Amino acid sequence: MGDPKRQRKKYETPSHPWRKENLEAELKLLGEYGLRNKKEILIANSKLRKYRSLARSLFTAVGERRAQAEAMLLGKLYRLGILPEGATLDDVLRLSVRDFLERRLQTIVYKLGLARTPYQARQLITHGKVYLGERRVKSPGYHVLRGEEEKIRVAAA
């Protein structure tokens, strides 16, 4: 199980962190999605890398194992709200970091019009004003599943 006090990183750092084009792209994403730091981009990037590597490994598989694993992967990404119904492995390879950042609670609260800016959405969430059904969610990075958008509400002050 591991020591709960010694959490593992949920991301990998880039091999060349100081490339100008990468820094500019990350800075643009930080402002657009109202992220706190680049670590949140790295977490989304690691999730993307994981699913894309699974899809690439399925291209080499054959037979029943491939069909079953492909259905599981596409079903998981559909439930997460990242892919539409009837997507293929090629669609998994076309995913970008933006697709994962769009499903964060912070972004969805902003897109639903419950906050004026992504930064205000983050503040509402961390202050405990946002509810998902009857449950309070205080993590701006919470990944909103398909169908949960209708349950999001902001508590009256």
What do you see in this structure?
This protein is mainly α and 157 residues long. It has two domains: 20-97, no CATH class; 105-154, Roll (Structural Genomics Hypothetical 15.5 Kd Protein In mrcA-pckA Intergenic Region, Chain A). The protein has helices at 20-33, 38-60, 63-79, 89-93, 97-101, 105-111, 118-126, and strands at residues 130-132, 135-136, 152-154. Strands 2-1-3 form a three-stranded antiparallel beta sheet. β1 and β2 (135-136) form a beta hairpin. The model has no long low-confidence stretch (mean pLDDT 95).
In short:
This protein has helices at 20-33, 38-60, 63-79, 89-93, 97-101, 105-111, 118-126; strands at 130-132, 135-136, 152-154. With 157 residues, the chain is mainly alpha-helical. The mean pLDDT is 95.
Oligomer: single chain
How many domain regions?
A: 2
Work out the helix count: 7
Approximate strand percentage: 5-15%
The termini sit apart by: 41 Å
- CA gyration radius, whole angstroms: 17 Å
**Which structural class is indicated by helix and strand composition?**
mainly alpha
* Apparent shape: globular
Uncertain parts: none
Order of helices and strands: HHHHHHHEEE
The strand count comes to: 3
- Strand arrangement within the widest β-sheet reads 2-1-3
Mean pLDDT: 95
Summarize the biggest pleated sheet.
Answer: 3 strands, antiparallel
Keywords:
157 residues, mainly alpha, Structural Genomics Hypothetical 15.5 Kd Protein In mrcA-pckA Intergenic Region, Chain A, 2 domains, 3-stranded antiparallel sheet
